[in-house]
Amino acid sequence: MSDAIPDEEQPAEESIQERARRFVEQQSPPNLFYYTEGARSFERRLGDAYKGLWRDHLTNGEQLLHVKHKEGIDAAAWEKIQGDVNRMQQLSYEACDSKTTPFNNGELQPSSRTNVRHRSIDLISMFRDSNVDLVELLLTLDMLNRSSASAVNVIAPFLPYQREDKKLQGKVPISAKVIFDLIAASAKHCLKRIVTIDLHAAQEEGFSDYPVDHLRASPLFARYILSDYFLDTNGLSLDDITVVSVDAGGAYRAEKAAAMIGRPYVVHDKTRSAPGTAEVRGHTGQIKTRCAVIIDDMVDTAGSITETSRYLREQDGVEKIFVFATHGVFSPKHDGGGRILYHPEDILRESGVKVVVCDTIPRSDEYYRANKDWLVDVISVAPLLADAILHDRLGYSVSQSMDRMQADIRNHVQAGRRMVIEPYLLKLPDIKPAAQPNP
Q1: What residue ranges of the chain have pLDDT lower than 70?
Q2: Catalytic residue chosen out of the listed positions 192, 270, 320, 333
Q3: SS3 of 101, please?
Q4: Is 99 one of the catalytic residues?
Q5: What is the dihedral of CA 67, 71, 77, 81, to 10 degrees?
Q6: Is 195 exposed, middle or buried (0-12, 13-18, 19+ CB in 10 A)?
């Protein structure tokens, strides 16, 4: 009996194109970006920011290697520069070909066509819906672990549930701790670190058993305040500004921002009778300027912001109020039965404050268009995250990079120089194109 396979059952010969495609799929680079569905709108911004930093760093290293006069620089330094250049050549921007498939009942299945075995993954996760996108993040981490990724960095500009960081009454969870535990349990041994921006309280880093790079948006806000774009447009000078914290929990954040721009700050005394309900009773210090800049980690129902703004106008005579918040959550205020009492957009519009947020939570063009009268600008955190990712890949200190950024701002203030913010701004629809900096 012949063992030959009939001609009609012979496997079709692969074309050259198919063989090349399969070969390329298996030869993915050692470092990859992976975007969850919630972070798709952020992909181009982060990609452009990373590629710009990578190109500048590589060019700078190559130029140093080709200078003719090397006197005064020891051999060890040149060897380090050569090592950096060699590593940089392996760290170009590459993103996974991935998708998350929804089932008919709403369940999710993340998958990647790109080979992630033994690769280091920077997993970018953003939260449009805290619960749905959290599940997608956890499932993606499990998928990457089961696909033998060697290391995963969770890059989540905004982490949900971080306001529940302690028990204010009996029989309630500490949800912030649970989120860190869920991330660690889903990623298992492949989790390397977590990168986030402006946690509700700095001590929440201790909830994670893995390293946390806790970045701050305050240098971006300080750069915005020090720009011609902000000061000249609003008819202000730096001397017109006092920095304000809405409560004691944000005092450290306001103090750091005030120190960068060389201005005084005050802290409001705020109490809460219920979640989302705030009462302002006064503040430390005195406000003797006509403009108040409120610095906060987030705006949710906007109760604290509007109450603080009302107090500043009525008690301190402040003429202009600007709110700088890292995370624009903007949730409707509900009563105990689930009925909507008000929308934050409405009370912010009525209060007359101008709000600037970061792009840590995705929003549609329609949302920006409908609220352009009070939501005046959105600052992108893509350059901040790209810098942290590149520093980690090179083994550099992320905290030193943040320190240098703050020192640069203080130096500009001392020298009386303005800063450029336009490259950091999103081009909001039907509002105004972001101006380009002078060459």
Answers
A1: 1-14, 20-28, 68-72, 272-281, 430-439
A2: 270
A3: strand
A4: no
A5: 0
A6: buried
